[in-house]
Amino acid sequence: MTTATLVPVFAALGDETRWNILAALGEGEASASALARRLPVTRQAITKHLAVLQEVGLVEPVRVGREIRFRVIASQLSETARRLDVIGARWDRRLAAIKQIAEDL
Amino acid sequence: MTTATLVPVFAALGDETRWNILAALGEGEASASALARRLPVTRQAITKHLAVLQEVGLVEPVRVGREIRFRVIASQLSETARRLDVIGARWDRRLAAIKQIAEDL
DNA sequence: GCCATCTGCATCCGGATGGTTGCACAATCC
DNA sequence: GGATTGTGCAACCATCCGGATGCAGATGGC
């Protein structure tokens, strides 16, 4: 679960490279080195990004022999979407109410 | 509609102050000056944030007399949530498939 | 045991970013 | 018409951030 606070999750998702990493991980678990081979960035850069993604619970490390692979935690994405949807709905209601009031004038 | 590219929207949502502004706008339309009065930041800072929010279609300016009020576009929030949910679902399927393969070994 | 490979840590760098201050300009209300 | 209030623009500042380099340490294959 680790329901991370919402804002940092969005901050993590607000970077193109991070999405590329997530997309690459969609093909299956991969280590930082492996990711560095198929993406146009250094391993160290990838490591930092993975740390950010792990911090907000979007990704999870798995030790395999001497390497550390990472896998996407899809549920965290869904959870974030759900929470954002709730917020959106709340605003919809509020705005609808305001509009109603305005029209009643 | 203005289906802004997803990543910049997340980047915009990845800032605490911006959420405070959105929350304040939830009470109803407000100008940059008005927001500056009830938030612990300068009007100019707020103006910049509003520009970012407007850029990604989360907020919309409305001219009222000599002031420019801003209102939240709730549909953009819902839309973003929907798109994120689709991505999450895709990952869920993919991960389920991978798990299936692993178990079949 | 040795070499190849993967990870970790520290440092450095340029650009973006959140924020401020200061000033000029526009419009509105009385 | 004048003072008040709202906006716009520019410069400046500190910090964060994405990224690169370099080097040291760990670990596994053969």
The oligomerization state is homodimer
Estimate what percentage of residues of chain A fall within beta strands. 5-15%
CATH architecture of chain A: Orthogonal Bundle
Computed CA radius of gyration of chain A, to the nearest angstrom? 19 Å
- Biggest sheet statistics of chain A: 3 strands, antiparallel
**CATH class identity of chain A:** Mainly Alpha
SSE topology string of chain A: HHEHHEEH
Number of beta strands of chain A? 3
Give the rounded overall mean pLDDT of chain A. Answer: 90
Largest interface: A-B, 32 and 31 residues
At the fourth CATH level, what is the homologous superfamily of chain A? Winged helix-like DNA-binding domain superfamily/Winged helix DNA-binding domain
Please give the count of helices of chain A.
5
Q: State the CATH topology of chain A.
A: Arc Repressor Mutant, subunit A
* Category by helix and strand content of chain A: alpha+beta
Distance between the termini of chain A: 47 Å
Q: How many domains is the backbone of chain A divided into?
A: 1
What sort of overall outline of chain A do the alpha carbons produce when their principal axes are compared? elongated
Q: Helicity of chain A, in percent? A: 55-70%
GO molecular function (chains A, B): DNA-binding transcription factor activity
Organism (chains A, B): Blastococcus xanthinilyticus
InterPro entries (chains A, B): ArsR-like_HTH (IPR011991), HTH_ArsR_DNA-bd_dom (IPR001845), WH-like_DNA-bd_sf (IPR036388), WH_DNA-bd_sf (IPR036390)
Domain HTH arsR-type (chains A, B): 1-92
What topology does this entry show?
Two copies of one chain form a homodimer.
Chain A: H1 6-13, H2 16-26, E1 30-31, H3 32-38, H4 43-55, E2 59-64, E3 67-72, H5 74-103
Antiparallel strand pairs in A: 1-3, 2-3
Helix pairs in contact in A: 3-4
The structure holds a DNA duplex (30 and 30 nucleotides).
